[in-house]
Automatic annotation (TrEMBL):
Ranges of residues in domain Pirin N-terminal: 16-122
Record-given protein name: Redox-sensitive bicupin YhaK (Pirin superfamily)
Organism: Phenylobacterium koreense
Region annotation (Disordered) ranges: 275-296
Biased composition, class Pro residues, residue ranges: 285-296
Similarity comment: family membership: Belongs to the pirin family.
Lineage of source species: Bacteria, Pseudomonadati, Pseudomonadota, Alphaproteobacteria, Caulobacterales
Superkingdom: Bacteria
Length: 296
């Protein structure tokens, strides 16, 4: 039933930490989901430093999906979008042939407060890897919700449980947010060949074992999965149809190594447009690590 358990790896981004889950050495993707970061949770004090902001950086071959439990982030991109995101909303940016964006904590810097959320990357199908970049925002009222017997659920993207999210996707997938009260149960059907669940808060029981915040459970296909909340809990459900193997290097995703090299060259040469308000400040591409000295 449970194929693999992945523990998040905490990383300091300069001002706050993320828990990186995907990609993982033993499991690079779940369906089209190729990247999964738990941002925070962190409490910011008013006036905190700008090193916490994520400066302009590029993407190709993927869509980014930002979803918050708490806080606010301001998104800017080279398509021209400027959009704050609040809890329960969706920022969906499709990079396609190339886009740059930044994520800044302007409201939290002014007022202080908590930030907690998930950013996922969804690999585009091969035939859509080079589509024109775009950005879409969806308010929480646009997303289907369900509540019964201590389980509250929101379908963020894709199709599941007989419902469809309005979020524009490019391949069959599902992404859902559960809140479970102590003792509540939820079921993940065997609808998709690749499925996983990430425990964002609390403790849940699956197949007689308990799992805590920061763990992702990757499931074998073919069986429905029953969850029981050992404490109040938040669980994110994700997966879908696989889109084929992908290469990931820095912020770029592609089915082609040559395309990754071209994207790196374009970024280094300044050929990728920056968001208008961010033209003087961007994240440089890391230089390749020097070869190991065989005599050391």
């Amino acid at each position: 039933m449970i194929e693999l358990v992945i523990d998040q790896r905490r990383r300091d981004l300069g001002g706050f930490e993320v828990g990186r889950v995907l990609p993982f050495a033993k499991r690079r993707m779940v369906g089209p989901f190729i990247f999964f970061d738990h941002m925070g949770p962190v409490t910011f004090q008013p006036g905190f430093g700008r090193e916490a902001d994520v400066r302009p950086h590029p993407h190709i071959g993927l869509s980014t999906l930002t979803y918050l439990f708490e806080g606010e982030i301001t998104h800017r991109d080279s398509v021209g979008a400027i959009q704050p995101i609040h809890p329960g909303e969706v920022n969906w940016m499709t990079a396609g042939s190339g886009v740059t964006h930044s994520e800044r904590f302007e409201t939290l810097r002014a007022k202080g407060g908590r930030m907690d959320g998930i950013q996922a990357w969804i690999a585009l199908p091969v035939e859509d890897e080079e589509i024109a970049p775009s950005f879409d925002h969806y308010g929480m009222d646009a997303l289907p919700t369900y509540e019964e017997n201590g389980l509250w659920a929101r379908l963020i993207a894709g199709k599941a449980y007989g419902a469809s999210s309005p979020v524009k996707t490019h391949s069959p997938l599902f992404y859902a947010h559960w809140r479970l009260k102590l003792g509540a149960k939820g079921e993940l059907p065997a609808e998709y060949p690749e499925r996983a669940a990430y425990v964002a808060q609390g403790v849940v029981e699956v197949d007689g074992r308990q799992f805590k915040e920061g763990q992702m459970l990757v499931f074998e296909p073919g069986q429905s999965i029953v969850f029981t909340a050992v404490t109040d809990a938040i669980v994110m459900l994700l997966g879908g149809e696989p889109v084929g193997p992908r290469l990931i290097e820095w912020n770029f995703v592609s089915s082609s190594k040559d395309r990754l090299e071209q994207a790196k060259a374009d970024w280094r040469a300044g050929r990728m447009k920056l968001p208008d308000a961010d033209n003087q400040e961007f994240i440089p591409l890391p230089e390749p690590a020097p070869p190991a000295n065989p005599m050391s």
